[in-house]
Amino acid sequence: MNFYTNKITTIIKRLFIQQTILKRIYFLIFGALIFVFSCSDFKKNTTHAKVPDYNIESGKLLAAKYCQSCHLLPDPSLLNAKMWEEGVLPAMGPRLGIYDYGFTHYPSSRNDQNVDKNYYPSKPVLSTQEWQYILDYYTSVSPDTLPQQQRTTAIKNGASLFTIEIPVFKPLVPTTCFVQIDTSAAFKKVVISDMFTKNIFWFDDHLNIIDSFKNISPVVDMERDEQGIVACNIGVMNPNNGKYGTALRMVTSPIGGLKADTTLRFTGLARPVQITPADFNKDGKTDYLVCEFGNLMGSLSWMENMGNNKYEHHILRGVPGAIKAYIRDVNHDGLPDIWVLFSQGDEGIFLFTNKGNGKFEQEQVLRFPSIYGSSYFELADFNKDGFPDIVYTSGDNADFSAVLKPYHGVYIFMNDGTNHFKQQYFFPMYGCFKAIARDFDGDGDLDIAAISFFADYVHHPEESFIYLENKGKMDFQPYSLPGTNTGRWLTMDAADLDGDGKTDLVLGNFSLAPASLKSAVNWKEGPPFIVLKNMIKNK
């Protein structure tokens, strides 16, 4: 009897233990599920409120895996839900091999012969369910609308520092894609390039035409070398993957005027936007740095002068978006180094340190989200410590997210002395395209002139041009200037046009705009450019 009693007791104990273990397992699983679904820190927008939390959590993890494989991981808050759903994500899907997912537009470049055949994956790199999770994450967590820009200092109307001068010359449709104040000659002059006619025009300091040159394509940059003027011909302005860009030197002809010099001619460039001469390998011959902005394909490269008008093409970074570069001897070793801004995909500012013999060491000193729309940067020493600080603008709004963005504007990043940078200033300015730092008012510190190409022309047309007067300690007073909303300013330059010792400005009007960009002013009736004459009294 005792034997059976002990046996039954043992069985009951085992059942009890198994039940306890099962209960603990169920408790742990249930608790984990509760934690996952109830402890999420996501706040859904009203449009996608019914998306399960599990989808959002999964999408966040997948985005971290796939979306930052090529660029900085964008936060959902940077765009509204509609732009993620209808603009950015449909454009990104094909790059992960996702083509048939109800997208309204198909990547026409997939069959473009100018695009590397391996650019798009031959098969999806993730499942359609995983892609849906990414869509759910970005469209559910992002806001319905982006917040408005907020300023701590109001814009004052009327900067008495400048007066506006307008040329008599007026093309049929102003499409000025390049402006420059040329101070190389005895008398100063304004140079502009017109996209529509492909003409280059020279004006004297009274804004009368003194010369012109019929070019093969629109010029977007001009630099002088020891023999003449090197023109950077973009080829086709609109986004494309063709290699139609060229570089051409122009020299003065024996009878006056300009003619093409065939001793320098680069062809097959992917939408080049800047060409700069420098002797990178210190062999006594002039090489050229080329920013091939491209579209899906592009690069930063340099053309090594091999002698006898032959050049060898070296790629420094084989990705698109190189938009602005400066050549400086950063470490004072006698070799030219390169600062460059990339504004397509993996946006950021890079430093290429020249190690000699044509070798460069790459370092990314600043990195920005891929939808910032980086548009320009300059090197300027704001605190006079001998180290270059950075003025940076974001404002390109022509891609897949054409919505007013609160992070567009003018930034200042200060150098700690070791080329590490920290943001010290931000001025919100929708669609900001360029900012130039100069001592415009002659008080010894750096002020800033900024233009917008995608401004809020309906509610804030004064943002077409903003002058930021430096009050010291990173305090800038913004001013607008009446009359500067007559053009849509794509480009700007600063120099002393009339030789009076003060820095003037020239703004170029590219009047063509998408239908969605509304304005009370018809830019096509505006001038091709305007000069902002500096009227400050010499101090």
Can you describe this structure in just a few lines?
The chain is 14% helix and 36% strand.
Low-confidence stretches: 1-41
Largest sheet, order of strands side by side? 1-26-25-24-23
Overall mean pLDDT:
89
Instruction: Specify the oligomeric state.
Output: single chain
Main beta sheet: 5 strands, mixed
Structural class, by secondary structure, is: mainly beta
- Helix % is 10-25%
Rg from Cα: 28 Å
Number of helices: 4
Strand residues, percent: 35-45%
Give the end-to-end Cα distance, rounded to a whole number of Å: 116 Å
Q: What coarse outline follows from CA principal-axis ratios?
A: globular
- How many strands in all? 29
What layout of secondary structure does this protein have?
Layout lengths: L1 H37 L14 H14 L14 H12 L35 H14 L14 E2 L4 E4 L10 E7 L6 E6 L4 E6 L4 E6 L4 E6 L4 E5 L11 E8 L5 E12 L2 E7 L8 E6 L6 E9 L2 E8 L4 E7 L8 E6 L4 E10 L2 E10 L5 E7 L8 E6 L14 E7 L5 E8 L3 E7 L8 E6 L12 E6 L5 E5 L8 E7 L8 E6 L19 E6 L5
Parallel strand pairs: 1-26
Antiparallel strand pairs: 2-29, 3-4, 4-5, 5-6, 7-8, 8-9, 9-10, 11-12, 12-13, 13-14, 15-16, 16-17, 17-18, 19-20, 20-21, 21-22, 23-24, 24-25, 25-26, 27-28, 28-29
Protein architecture, described:
The chain is mainly beta. The protein is 14% helix and 36% strand. The chain has four helices and 29 strands. The chain has helices at 2-38, 53-66, 81-92, 128-141; strands at 156-157, 162-165, 176-182, 189-194, 199-204, 209-214, 219-224, 229-233, 245-252, 258-269, 272-278, 287-292, 299-307, 310-317, 322-328, 337-342, 347-356, 359-368, 374-380, 389-394, 409-415, 421-428, 432-438, 447-452, 465-470, 476-480, 489-495, 504-509, 529-534. A five-stranded mixed β-sheet has the order 1-26-25-24-23, with no helix packed on it. The longest helix has 37 residues, at 2-38. The radius of gyration is 28 Å and the shape is globular. Residues 1-41 have low confidence and may be disordered.
